[in-house]
Amino acid sequence: MFAAYAQQVGYFLSRLEAATAVFDSEEQRLDLPTFLQARGPQMDLPVELGVHHHLPVRLLVVRVSAELANEWHWELVGQYLRHLAEIWAVSRAKKQEDSAGTEETLSPIGCPRKQSLS
To answer: Is 38 in contact with 48 (CB distance < 8 Å)?
Structure first.
């Protein structure tokens, strides 16, 4: 997902999923929880994401309280849902515009009948 987005937009800012593979500059996979515990509360370093892509990115880390992280999470979820609603509204308006003056019909889909095993 990140690789495709980076090609289209050129940059992105995202929370990292726990299962995402992160590699250091020597291409060694990092055990992120252990790595982050050994570092300070803030960091900015080059890493690579993904087992297959090894997408070069900057890892920005700012340690915050669980309460603040939860607040930010739900704020981002709300922004994402509003964004999806906007996309849905535009898509629906486009479909209505495209189908103006035409009737919608349903066509049956052929599928094989169950056959007896005897």
So the answer is: no
Yes or no: say if 23 and 29 are a contact pair by the CB < 8 Å rule.
Answer: yes
Residue 31 has φ and ψ, to the nearest 5°, of -85, 95
Q: Quick check: is 15 in a domain?
A: yes
**Does residue 118 belong to any structural domain of this protein?**
no
22 burial via Cβ count (<10 Å: 0-12, 13-18, 19+): middle
Render pLDDT for 12-63 as a digit per residue (tens, 0 to 9).
777 788 788 999 989 999 998 888 888 888 889 999 988 988 888 888 888 8
The closest alpha carbon to 16, from 95, 43, 38, belongs to 43
Give alpha helix (H) positions in 38-99: 66-98
- Structure token pair of residue 111: 């599928």
Domain that holds residue 20: 2-77
Hey, what are 35's tokens?
């790595």
